[in-house]
Amino acid sequence: MKFVVYACGAVIAVAFGSISSGASAAPDEIQVYTEEMDDPGEFGLELHVNYAIKGTKAPGYAGEMPSQHMLQITPEFSYGVTRTLEAGLYLPVAIGPDGNAYGNGLRFRLKYIAPHEEGRYFFWGLNTEVGYSARRVSESDWGMELRPIVGYRSEDWLVSFNPILNLNLSNNVSREPHFEPALKVTRKAAEGVHAGLEYYGEYGPIHHTLPQNQRAHYLYGVVDIEKKGWDIDFGVGRGFENAGDIWVAKAIIAFPFK
Q1: DSSP notation for 137-170
Q2: Would strands 142-153 and 122-133 be described as parallel, antiparallel, or unpaired?
Q3: What's the CATH number where 214 sits?
Q4: Residue 56 domain-assigned (yes or no)
Q5: Are 146 and 130 in contact (CB under 8 A)?
Q6: pLDDT at position 17 over 50
Q7: Residue 9 has pLDDT above 70, yes or no
Q8: DSSP string covering 242-253, please?
Q9: 19 within some domain
Q10: What are the two backbone dihedrals, phi and then psi, of residue 25, each rounded to the nearest 5 degrees?
C-alpha cells in the first residue's frame, strides 16, 4: 500500500449559531464516517465548519442561497445508546457574505457499528439520517440519508468507504435515491497525526446514474489531529468537472468530555 499524502491545514474562523444540506454546493457536513462512536451513556459534541472560498454565485432554483463566501457552522450533539448504537442531532446555520445568520433546518441520525473485537482491522455499519431543510439549501423540505460504512483501520492506515444514498421525501421533487459515494484514506504522519485524502462524488439517480462527463467530483487534502482528548480535522477541497464549488475549506472539532 504505497500511498502518502501530506495535506495543508486550513485555518477557519469559527462562530457558533444554529442548521443545512445542499445538492450542488458544499453541504453543511463534509465528512466520511468511520467506526468511531460514543461509549454507552457518553455525550459528544462536534462542530462542523466549512467555508466556500470559491463557490456557486447563482441560485440553481428559485429560493436557493448561492454558496459563494458562505460560512456554514453545524454543531452535532451525540449520545452513545449502546456499544453498537449512537444517536445524533444536527443544528446547522449558514452565515452569508452579508454577515446575517440563517437557520437551515434540523436533522436526526442513528448510527450502528457491528460488534468487533479489539485488534480487528475491518469494520462495517450503517448511519441513517432524517431531517428538515429550509428552501435556501434544498428544494425538498424533508430528506433522508442512508450511509453504509465499510472500512479498515490499523496503527498506520485508515480506509473508509461510504456508498451514500440521498432521498428527497417531499412531494414537489423526485424521490428517487441519489448515489453520492465518499472515500477517506489517511496514513499516520506523526504521533497523533494522520494525513491523506477524502473524495466525494455526485453520481445522480441510483437507477440511471449520470454519464461520467456529467458527474461532480470533489477531492480534499486532510489532516486529522488527536491531542489531549481533542480531535481536530482540517481539510481543503477542490471541485472538479460539474462541481458547484471550486474551493472549500473545512474543519471538524470534537470537544473532549471524558
Answers
A1: T-SSSEEEEEEEEEEEE-SSEEEEEEEEEEEE-S
A2: antiparallel
A3: 2.40.160.40
A4: yes
A5: no
A6: no
A7: no
A8: T-S-SEEEEEEE
A9: no
A10: -95, 170
Backbone angles phi, psi at 214, to 5 degrees: -115, 0
How far is the C-alpha of 94 from the C-alpha of 100, rounded, in Å?
A: 8
The helix (run of H) or strand (run of E) holding residue 25 is: none
Domain count, the chain: 1
Q: What is the mean pLDDT of the chain?
A: 88
Q: In the 8-state DSSP scheme, what is residue 63?
A: T
Domain residues for the domain of 113 are 43-255
Distance CA 14, CA 55 (A): 19
Distance CA 251, CA 245 (A): 16
Q: Residue holding cell 446514474? A: 209
Asked whether residue 13 is assigned to any structural domain, the reply reads no
Question: What's the Cα-to-Cα distance from 90 to each of 8, 152, 158, 167, rounded to whole Å?
Answer: 27, 27, 25, 18
Q: pLDDT digit string (tens) for 133-157? A: 999 999 999 999 999 999 999 999 9
Contact 161, 182 (CB under 8 A): yes
Using 50, 70 and 90 to split pLDDT, how confident is the model at 56? Answer: very high
- Rounded percentage of the chain residues whose pLDDT exceeds 90: 78
> Which residue do the cell numbers 454558496 mark?
67
Residue 15 lies in a domain: no
